[in-house]
Structure formats: structure tokens, C-alpha cells
Records
---
Amino acid sequence: MHPASFTRVAAAELTLPPAVADAFPPTRAAALARLVAVDAAAYARTRNHLRGAVTRLSPYLTHGLLSVPEVLAAVGPDAGKLAQELAWREFFRLAHDREGAAILRDRFGPQPRLALDAGPRRLPGALVAGATGIEALDAAVRALVDTGYVHNHARMWLASVACHVAGADWRAGAAWFQFHLLDGDLASNALSWQWVAGSGSAKPYVADQANLNRFAGTAQRGTFLDRPRDDLLTGAVPDALRATVELELPSVVPDLPAPTFDPVRPLLAYHPWGLDPAWRADEDAERWLLLEPAFFARHPWSPARLAWLLAAARQVPGLRVGVGDAREVLAPRAADAAAGRAAPLVHRAHPAVAHWPGPRDPAPTAFAHRWTATAAPRSFSAFWSRVAPRDR
Ligand SMILES: Cc1cc2nc3c(=O)[nH]c(=O)nc-3n(C[C@H](O)[C@H](O)[C@H](O)COP(=O)(O)OP(=O)(O)OC[C@H]3O[C@@H](n4cnc5c(N)ncnc54)[C@H](O)[C@@H]3O)c2cc1C
């Protein structure tokens, strides 16, 4: 088990590595520039290739600097495959909304293959070090650590190797990704890992060397992935992946004081997934981004990711940042507002802050609001058949 502890670090020490800032400038302007460049037809044709026309919008979408409806409005009616991929995001989000922390356990059933030493923070050492000898995997790990971004297909390869070929626990892979990815999103991450790990699937996804070569543009042969599918799924764990390590994912939180509120002014409470500069932009209100240590203790983020978040928070004019537990910091303020002793407070809905008190505005969605059933959809196809644009 891992103690839910964290270390406070001076905010000034959380500096944004240049490689991260170059790859994903933490601004809305950068998101909009990327949006203008989206080519939906090229995306549909090439998205599976590492050099394909993917959007690289995910860090902005995860943190609310851009929304799915905005992307679809900009791309227009021919979004096609891109619309479907964006719907995956909302499908996962809906499951998180309806099922809460249960999505962080085996939502689809137990993982079919688990090595004897598997654990929620144990992965093959060579994989984590980017030293498997398989070029496409090792490059993906370098990208993960250096830039906080990995192409979707490479994420699938890393998860397939970790869970199927090495029998690692998907939760370890999800924690590893969540630590580094700038777009790390509890729902998309945990549920994608479970999907690749083959939980509840009769025909799990598994990648072999030919698949990597085709979509990464490499030409390797004779690697431990150059084996038949059944062998990859059930054969011996390759020597290169046998030695496992306990992941070191220290939890840090900026050393900032808890927010203090002016009861006379309305309060807009922000969380890391709702940095939308347009949200109630014309209102005269206090704006506070609240970072909860308990969240980061359970789901550690790298210092680079936290630095990115703090930089992105500057996109919301007047937004101040404080650290504290919502139940201690926001609850008394919400009680005062409800009793008429203080001006109103409001936050934007997100499943990671379902415990926040007080009224909430709905988050923008393009598809999820069309799902009216009480339970979350069990499968993406059930969701998509109900919410796809052709049904409108
Ligand atoms: C093991 C694994 C872990 C993942 N973890 C995350 C995560 O923590 N956060 C996250 O946002 N995505 C996650 N994804 C989904 C997907 O890989 C990323 O959304 C995508 O690679 C982001 O890059 P992009 O913006 O260039 O995507 P594009 O291919 O350009 O897609 C456009 C947008 O559609 C959405 N999208 C695309 N593919 C998916 C997908 N399979 N599932 C959900 N949404 C999708 C994203 O919002 C993305 O920004 C994960 C996938 C896997 C296989």
C-alpha cells in the first residue's frame, strides 16, 4: 500500500521544462492555433501513424482551456472520425460521473494476465527506463517523461506490453501515465488502461513488432514482440521484462497558503480541470483555483505537470491559486452563502470534484448530455449509437 502523503514544494521551484513549454505552450492562444490547424480528413486517414495528423489538443481539453463543443464547432460538420474520438473522451467522463472512484478498479472484470509480483505500482524496470531495446517503445517512454505527451497508438503499445506481455497490473501503468502526461485524466487514463489490459474482453488488444514497425516507421525484427499473438498473450515473460521495479512517483503540492475569501464578493471556485477563461468571464467575482493535497497524494503529478498547470492557470484573469481541502476551505463558505451570510459561490462540475459543496455549473459537453439513461453506458458502441451526430 502507498501512504497518501505529499511534499510541499516552493511554487517558484516548479519550473516548466523548456521541452514541455515548446511542445505544449500553456496558453489558450496555443490551443486555438492548434485548433485552426486541425485537418479532419487527414486525421481520419493518418491518425494511427505516429507521424499522422493528430491534433495534440488533449492537454488543453483535459484542463478546460478548450472544450469538446468548441473543437467540433471549429472543425464543422465533417469532423467524422475526430468526432468519434472526442466522444470517447465524453464516454469515459460519463462513466466517471456516474460511477465515481469505481472506475479506478476493474470496471470490466479482472485483468486476464497478472504476473506473480504484479502490484499497483510495479512495472518492468526496462520499460520504465525506456531500455527495452524496442525503438518505438523506448522513444514513447522518452516522450512521456520529456514532453508529457505520447501518441495514442504508442500509449496502446506501452499498455499492451506492460499488461499482456509482462503481466503487470494496469493500475501501475495508469499511475505512471497519470504522473507524467500533461493530459492525464483519471477517466480516459484508467479506462483506457483497463481496455487495453483486456479486462472483460474476449479478444484483447495486443500489439506485435509488425504493428509497431508499420505505424512507427521502424524496421526491427527478432525482438520480444516478434512473436505470434497467442505467445504474446500467454507465453513466458521475455527476459528483458522480467525484472520489475516499484515506481517512484513522489507526490508534490505547491507550498501555497489556503485561500481566504471575501464574503461580500461572489466566489468562483476553479479546479485543475476547469481552467476556462470564458467561464463567467464578465462577472465581478473572486476567482480561486483550489489544489487539494489529498488528490495529489492519491494521484501524484510530476513537477513538470504541476508547473504546466500553474502556468495555464494564468490564462484566467484574476485567478489566484490556493492549497487546501475543499471540505475545510469551501464548505464553511458554501454554508455561509446558503444561509445568506455571504455572496454566492459556484464551481464547474467535474467528477474529480464531486465532493465540492455548493452549486455547480454544468461542464460543456457535445455528446454526454444526450445520454439520458441513469446508468453509465457499458460500452462505447452503446453510447455512440445513442449520441452520434447522425441521430440529431
Ligand atoms: C493507455 C492509454 C491511456 C490514455 N490516457 C489518457 C489520458 O490520461 N488523458 C487523455 O486525454 N487521453 C488519454 N488517452 C486517450 C488518447 O490516447 C489521448 O486522448 C490522445 O492520444 C491525445 O492526443 P491528441 O490530442 O493528439 O489526440 P487526437 O487523436 O488528436 O484526438 C483528439 C482528441 O480526442 C480525444 N481522444 C482521442 N482518442 C481518445 C481515446 N482513445 N480516448 C479518449 N479520448 C480520446 C482526446 O480528447 C483528444 O485530444 C489514453 C489512451 C490510452 C491507450
Note: The mean pLDDT is 96.
---
Amino acid sequence: MRIGLIGLQGSGKTTVFNALTKMEAPVAPYRKGRVEPNIAVLRVLDERVDRLSKIYNPRKTIYATIELVDFTGLAENGGRGESFSATAMVSIKTMDALIAVVRNFEDAYQDSAEPLKELHYIGEELILSDLMMMENLLERIETGRKRGQGTEDIINQEQTVRRILEALNCNRPVREMVLSHEEEKAIRGFQCVTKKPLMVILNSDEKGYGKSPAVVAEISKKYAVMEFAGKFEMELSGLDDEESSLFREDLGIEESAGRRLTTLAHATLGYISFFTVGPDEVRAWNVRDGGTALDAASTIHSDLAKGFIRAECFSCEDCLRCGSEKGIRENGLFRLEGKDYRVQDGDILNIRFNV
Ligand SMILES: Nc1nc2c(ncn2[C@@H]2O[C@H](COP(=O)(O)OP(=O)(O)O)[C@@H](O)[C@H]2O)c(=O)[nH]1
Ligand SMILES: [Mg+2]
């Protein structure tokens, strides 16, 4: 799962990125020019993994991961629709979801904070980017038609593109549209950025944290939102877990930034976790909610999906309760499932396959 942090310059994206990934990417008070995005892998902390690891005592314990990409900021003074550089856009299109970081702290180098206005601006820029892409596509379709190209697929694509353009022109992102299976197919090759799930981080400072309930409420009408004390969390990321949770408590933050983000991302994107266990490794994986045993198999390795025979399955909860796999079998909690089995959050799977 890949998530991109986007937002205006100076909203604190790199600060939030550092807080989440414990990296030390340069944070700039104000910086001109474009730089390569920062990329890091974030572990999805899950105490079930730790507990399973105690039972199996494996050589390796591996958490599920989320790849986080910190893009350089949008420049407000760019022309309309030019806020994202072309190279950034190519990369943004490969993300599974986006997080808009909006500034909710005062900064000597910047105008006063207007998080709602910032969010509105980001939304508009994303819509403009899709508008331009869809307009280009429509032009190409029309040119093709003049040359006599007009298969059923192309006609269907044209209708879909026109409908999307209509929505975008009314400031509606593609994610809010209900697309039929046919329409989905028609635009599959064109990654609309407004189709991607968008979450929001309201980046507050230590003093203001928790004091903007009206702003949070307004944002949450449309988006999954989380308030973050970015700089504060970044400073905490250098401390050990116990120390940092004491500081967090003072501010009324219940869980670490990473923990809160991964929970939010899983919920917004509809991901669940399943596990594989054994003496070699205990490992957590992400799969889309609604995914089948076959999807789970292909998440692990394409060979497992190709040669899929069946999935041996039991639940993590039962395993922790019984204390061992032996206990699972004795209590009749061990199941064999076929490729269409819908994976549940917390399932422990062993894929039987043959290549
Ligand atoms: N007071 C305060 N300053 C912050 C906070 N988050 C970021 N900053 C400052 O805002 C400036 C821009 O931050 P940066 O992370 O580089 O923003 P980016 O351009 O979005 O990546 C830096 O000077 C940060 O120290 C915060 O929560 N509180
Ligand atoms: Mg930055």
C-alpha cells in the first residue's frame, strides 16, 4: 500500500513524514526549487504480531508495511493547475491513497493559518489535474472518430469521459461518483487523482493541539481526518516508546502518530490484516477487505496464487486463546478453505499450493 503526502509548501509534510517514519529528512523553513520526494516504509504496528511471535518463536518477525511518500509542496503562486510538477504527478498517480497535510499553526515565514482554505485549494488543484487529463483524452477520442475509429469500447469510453468531465466541472471529485462496471473499465488505464481516497492531517502545534474541534468537524464532513501535532511528534520520535507516551499523555494524544495513521489508512482504504506463521517467520500482510484466499495468496507470492490448492486457516484470536496450534486442532478450530473464501481480519493462513 502506497500513500502520498501532499499539500502546500510549509504545511509540515516533511515534519509529519519524519514523525511517522523516524527519518530525518531535511525540514525547511522556506525553500525554493523542487526536490525528489522522500520515501520510507512504515511498519503497521500490531500487537497481535508480537503475541504470535511469542507463541511461534520464529527467526524473523515481520510487520505489514505502508510505503509513505513525501512530495514537495504545491506552490500557490504557480498557474492554475500547475501546482503539481509533471514528474510529481506521474508519481502521485501510482499512489493507492493520498493524505493532504494542512497547516494549523502560525509560522513566522507564512501568512496566518487557514486550514480549510488550504484544503479547498488542494482539492481544486487535484480536480484541475483530472480535468486536463480527461479533456486531452476526449480530444484524442474525437480526433480518432474523425478518422473513422469508433468501436463500441471507444464509444463507451467517450460517454464515460463526458460524464466525468461534467462532474469535475461542477467541482465533484471522481471518488464521489458512482461508476458502473463498464465505466470503471473504460477509464482503468487513466489514473484519476480525484478517484483516490483522500485523507486529511490537520497539522497543529503543541499549543493549539485539540483546540480546533470546529475545523476538525468541518473537514470530517467530507474526509477521514486526524489532528496531528507534527513537530511535537517529530521531536518525540527520537525518544523510546515509554518516554514518548508520557509526553503524548500530557497533550491528550492516546496513540503514536504511526499507530494512528495506519489505523486511519486501514479503515479508509478498507484494508485488513492476515498472518502467516511458522518457525521461520511470523508475518503480517495487508489485503483489501472483501479479498479472497486467492487474493491473499497472490499478496504473498504469485506462485501461491497460480498453484493454489487450498488454504489452511484459523483465527489469530483463537490461537492466542488456545496458546498453540495443537490447541486449535483439539478444539476443532482448524479449517480448510477454498480459493473463494473471504479472508477475515486476523486470519492465520497457510496456503497449500503446487507449481
Ligand atoms: N510550530 C510548528 N511548526 C511546524 C509544525 N510542523 C512543521 N512546522 C514548521 O513548518 C516549517 C515547514 O515544515 P516542513 O515539514 O518542511 O513543510 P513541508 O514544506 O510541507 O514539507 C518548518 O519550519 C517546520 O519546523 C508544527 O506542528 N508546529
Ligand atoms: Mg517538505
Note: The pocket of magnesium ion (ligand 2) is lined by residues 13-14, 72-73 (CB under 6 Å).
---
Amino acid sequence: MDAGKTLEGVGKVGFVGAGNMAQAIGGALLRTGLLKASNIYVSSPSNTNKGPWIQFGTHTTTENGCVVENSDVIFLAMKPIYLDAALMDIKNTLKQPVSNKLFVSLLAGVPLKVLEEKIHRIVPDARVIRVMPNTPVLVGAGCSVFSCGTTATKKDAEVVKMMLSTGGICQEISESLIDAAGGLSGCGPAYVYLIIEALSDGAVKMGVPRAMATQFASQTVLGAAKMVLETGKHPGQLKDEVCSPGGTTICGIHALEKGGVRSTLMEAVEAATKRAAELGKNK
Ligand SMILES: NC(=O)c1ccc[n+]([C@@H]2O[C@H](COP(=O)([O-])OP(=O)(O)OC[C@H]3O[C@@H](n4cnc5c(N)ncnc54)[C@H](OP(=O)(O)O)[C@@H]3O)[C@@H](O)[C@H]2O)c1
């Protein structure tokens, strides 16, 4: 976040859906002091995910309309299959018509056109932005991308960028790229958790205690990512630099290549991207 910037003039922020992604973004907003807990409204049908919000001190409710009424910026943070139910609940629990609201969708796959059409049935002048965040937002190392709907303003884009930047990097991209970006960064933490777990398993197999192995695997992934980001070198060059002729690393690389790691990771991003498009089509 730019030093000195605040959410002045934006006011209150709501989350319709209280789960992992909402908690990651809400947690980042609170941790960095961009928002006070008293300026956050959260709704979900059950109490399953309300515990952390109650601890934060935010307002919680089961009525989605209450969140919309009280907030200037409303994050839609339910799974795509629950979008229609969530919007219906907004409609049914709004006590009066509302206007001048910015809706920010976190839903994988659901296009801006569909979001605008559905949201405008309830809040006709709503502005809409579509975001694809990831859960490392919670620890300040997130990677979020967003695209603006037809009536979203430059200020709306700035506000969303400022909010998401409290939890890492955030960039505006063309909507045509958002499913693919999500297939990488939105889903990517899960791919990397699996890789960390497997690296840890390898070290455990070779006699390293589990806790130590997981810590070393995680730090290694973090370190390699920082090397790519901070040196600006191509990952292939960095790989070459640590592969001594006849050494240990090139033997490890050979094992990875035999297992098809590159192709498998490419296929993971492709599969997730296609699934996002499918989820969007079903809406
Ligand atoms: N998790 C990620 O890494 C990630 C990354 C990028 C994008 N996203 C997107 O973020 C969205 C949320 O994902 P998540 O992982 O946070 O899911 P989650 O942990 O399952 O949370 C979903 C939340 O939506 C609530 N909900 C369900 N039906 C609702 C309704 N009718 N009205 C209001 N709230 C409702 C659930 O309520 P209960 O608490 O009562 O069950 C829950 O609090 C998804 O659309 C996903 O595509 C997630």
C-alpha cells in the first residue's frame, strides 16, 4: 500500500461470505490498519466461519442485505454456485433500496457481464469489479489481479488496488486473462503446498525429522521465489547457476524431468483455467 493512503471517502467495507478468502482480505485490511473492525460488515448463512470475524470485532450477521445497506464496498466472497442464492438473500433482506455501491466479486470464473446483469437487478446503479486474489493475502504475500466492469470508475480501481495491495501485489489486467491468472496465482498456493509437502516427504524418507523437513522445504521455496523476484534473472539461468557439472543438483533435476514436473505444472494451470471458464458458463 502507498504510504499515507487511507480509505478516506470509501467508508465501510462488507463481505457477503465469511470464509477463507474473505478472512484473508479482511485480515490484511485490519492488520495494516487500513480499516477499523467497526467499519467491516460480514454475512454468512451459518456460524461456521464467523469465529475469526467475532475475534476481529467486526459486525456479523446472517442477512446479506444488512451488509449491502451498511457498506460502500461489498466483496462477494461465496463459492460461484451460491451466487444466485446470495443475491436473492440480498434482495430479500434489504430494508430499503440502495444506490452508489461498489461490488467486488472474488468468484472464480464468473464474467463481469454476468455479474453486472445479476447485480443490477438488485442495485441498478452498482459498479462492479472482478478480482482474482489468493489466500497469501493474509500474510502480506498475496498476488491479486482485477478487471473493471462497464461503470466502475478510476477511483473504484484505485480503491480496490489499495485494499488488495495491503496483502501483497495487485494488478489490473484484461478480463480475457483473468481465468488464466487465477489458474496460476489463485490456485497456485495449493500447488506449492503440495510441492512443499512432497519435498518434505523426500527429506523425511532420507532421515530428516518431519518438522525440520517442512521448515527447510518452505524456506527453500520462499528463497527461490525471492531470488527470481529480486535478481530479475530468468529462472532457467538461476537453475543453471546451481547445477555443477556432475553434481548433486543436476541429479535431482534429472529425477524431476523424468517425472514430468514441467508438463504436470503446465497442465495444472491449464486445467484450473478451463474449470474457471466452465464455472462461469454455468452461471
Ligand atoms: N480460497 C482461495 O484460495 C480462493 C482464491 C481465489 C478466489 N477464490 C474465490 O473466493 C470465493 C470464496 O472462496 P473461499 O475459499 O473463501 O470459500 P469458503 O471458505 O467456502 O467460504 C465461502 C463463504 O460463503 C458463504 N456463503 C455460502 N452461501 C452463501 C449465501 N447464500 N450468502 C452469503 N454467504 C454465503 C459461506 O457461509 P458459511 O460460513 O455459512 O458456510 C462461507 O462463509 C470463491 O468464489 C472462490 O472462487 C478463492
Note: The chain has two domains: 13-177, 188-281.
---
Amino acid sequence: MKYILAPLAGFTDAPFRLMCQEGGADLTYTEMVSAAALAHTHGPTRHLMETLPGEGPVACQIFGANEDEIALATRIVSALKDDAGRPRFCEINLNAGCPMQKVTKCGAGATLVKDPAKVHRLLKAMVANTDLPVTLKTRLGPHPQATTAFELLDAAETAGAKGIAFHARYTSQLHGGPLHLNVLADLVSRAHIPVAGNGSVTDAATAAVMAQTGVSAILLGRATLANPAIFNQLKAAFQPSELPNPPAPPNPPEPSLSLCERHLAYVLAFREQLAAKFPEDHVPSVDGFASVKMHTHLFRYFNGRPGAAALRARLNAVRTLAEIREIIKAGNS
Ligand SMILES: Cc1cc2nc3c(=O)[nH]c(=O)nc-3n(C[C@H](O)[C@H](O)[C@H](O)COP(=O)(O)O)c2cc1C
């Protein structure tokens, strides 16, 4: 079983991906990148496609609804290289599942769940414009009375996609409600390409249930945010060959505040990299950058600790790196 960090807009930047790779992720995804923005503008969009030295395999996810923009974005992503001159990404993925209005109103993301023929055209445009493997991330259909997943699978296969990931929910469910693992298992049994499963896997028990569908990989999203080491914990706890035995208890997790310090160090390294590489772009000050990243990630490392609420409140109010460091130190003592 492969364990993969799912794309999470606003979260799966290079520092967090590196944390997850160190925590055992076999593959990570960038945040979704707008094909229209890539095709027509420069600037901050390219920050989303930056990787840090030492990152393992990263897939770049794009979203869009226009074939020409998707084709151009695919060429741009495919041409990016890492420091050693190798392709920066190991895969390029089309988002056909995001329910956010700013994405769906342009006909992208979850709008595509309703239109497998269009998904086919977009994927074909990607395949024709890259040597990288092209994959699709999608849902089961717009709502439980309209399952389009089998048509989406067919669209992906006939367009030449090399894999497909299903969030085992319908668009109408957003990110909650029951998973439809029977549909996922059916999809796996019909597929000719690898199928990955996604949705509310938070521990070895939920991973074991998802694994029973026969998926070749599991994407983890929200459960990684406070615990980027979850991938190694799952690997240690759960071997598919052990089914149907109950999973073993996970390894003791690393103290979360040392993770927090490491994450902050990667955030700072990432800011340095952006500032050095894109001097013409606006990159926030060290204090501003650290504060923004701290607001989305670092407070989660305090979950469950004595005094966590007070520490989190202090983190919310801080505006400088020195203050963030003080709070982490206070949390450690
Ligand atoms: C804050 C947030 C941002 C997300 N951003 C993306 C995204 O950029 N691309 C995408 O395909 N899915 C995105 N998703 C969906 C996740 O990748 C995943 O499918 C969903 O959270 C279910 O998995 P989970 O229960 O393990 O979190 C996002 C979800 C959340 C909660």
C-alpha cells in the first residue's frame, strides 16, 4: 500500500510536503495550481510550484476547464527542473473534484464531475503535452443519485491517464458525510489503471477499511495537518497482508513540538529560497511569512497538550518570528 499526501490548497506547500515526506509519505501533491493563471500571468502562482532541496517525489496538480490553457499549463509544469536539472515533478494531475465556488464557477474542479467527456478532452490535452504521467483526482459523481465515476474512469483510461484517485464522496457531500466504499471497490474491480482511494482516513483502522476496497494507494488530507508523521505510523501499524487481523498500535509519535520547530525551519528556508529566486516578486518579510504559515499550520502541533488553548491563542496574536519562537519554547517547557 502506498500512502500519499493529498493536495490541500493553502497547506501542501514545500515545507509541509517535506515534513510529510520525512513522515513517510510515498508521494506528495502541490496545492492546486490554476492553469489560467499559469497560462496568462507570472508571479505568485509559480511559488506554488517551488520545491525544497531534499523533497522526494512530488506531483503537481492543476485545475482549469479550457483545453488550450490546460495544454499550456501542462507544458510549463513539465518543463520545470529541480536543482540537479531533473524534471521537478514526477506526475501531473488534473483536479476534477474541488467544490469551491471560485473553482467551479469557471467550469473547473467539481463541475467536471458532471462532464466526463470534457474530462476526457482535458486529460488528452495534458497527455499530448507532456512526457510525465498524467493522473486524475475526482469524486464519485455530483450527488448520490448521479454516479459518474465509472464514466470518469473510462474517460481517464481512454485519454491515456496513468492513474486515478477517487475521493469516495459525491460533490454534494463536500468533505463530510458517509464514504461510499462499495462504489470505490466496484471501480477498483473494473479499472485497468491504478486506483487510489481518499476520504477521512485518520488512523490504521480507517486505512484498513479503505484498503479492503483493493485500492493501490491511499491519499491522506486533513489527518496529516497536525500529524505529518501519520504515514510512517500507518505503515508500522498496518500491513494489508495482515487483513483481517486488527491493526497493531502505531509507533509512539514524535513529540509534536520538535516537529513544530522543524516545520518552522523549513518555512524559513522556503522563504529564503523564494526571495532569492524571485527577487522581482513580492515575498513577505521573514516575520510576515512565518506568521502566515504559523496561522495555517503550527498551532495544530499544540493540540492535546496541557495549556494548548492558551498557547494557541498566543500564536494567533503573534506577528513576529521571535514571538513564535518564544511560544514554541514555552510549549516545550
Ligand atoms: C482545506 C482543504 C483544501 C483542499 N484543497 C484541495 C486541492 O487543492 N486539490 C484537491 O484535489 N483537493 C483538495 N482538497 C480535498 C482533499 O484533497 C481531500 O480530497 C479531502 O480533504 C478528503 O480527504 P481527507 O478526508 O483525508 O481530508 C482540499 C480539502 C481541504 C479540506
Note: The pocket of flavin mononucleotide is lined by residues 6-10, 31-32, 61, 95, 97-98, 137, 167, 175, 198-201, 220-223 (CB under 6 Å).
